[in-house]
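User: I'm writing a tutorial on reading structure tokens. Could you give me a worked example: one chain, its sequence, then its tokens, then a sentence or two explaining what the tokens reveal?
Assistant: Sure. Here is the example chain.
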Amino acid sequence: MSGSAGPGIPAPHPEDVLKAMRAAGLRLVTAESCTGGMVCAALTAVPGSSDVVEGGIVTYSNAMKRSHLGVSETSLATHGAVSEAVAEEMAEGARARSGADVAVSITGIAGPGGSEHKPEGRVCFAIAGPAGTHSGTQEFGAIGRAEVRQASVAHALSLLLDAAQKVAPDR
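And here are its predicted structure tokens:
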């Protein structure tokens, strides 16, 4: 998965993401857990974003991931909510339910806390679109809850920009 934006790496400006999506003729949706809607909020803060953004779905609990995005109980039990498998199902579910062309999903451990197997700062992402579904994990580390969330927004915006540029690379 390309488009990594992490701590200290500037995120693409939401306006640039929207312009690229327009140029590619794509509409998007977000499926967010640990960011609580921050990606969608960043995009919709830009005037005129309604021609690109279908909306965002915040699914903080496993029950909401199942009921609103169609994440399977098997994936949650086998991999846990913070996993690439669940991120993929979140993105695919959001895309299918919204009719959007591209969906980005985020599920992670912003902190404080975590475990040996799933440490604070681990965030899983997926992007579902015309080119299929791709996922990846970023290890932001125990940099603080707000910082993990901001780094996650930056990374998600990068993924959306990359997805748009793959459809319309010359724009």
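What the tokens reveal: The CA atoms of residues 35 and 150 lie 8 Å apart. Strands lie at 28-32, 53-58, 102-108, 122-129, 132-139.
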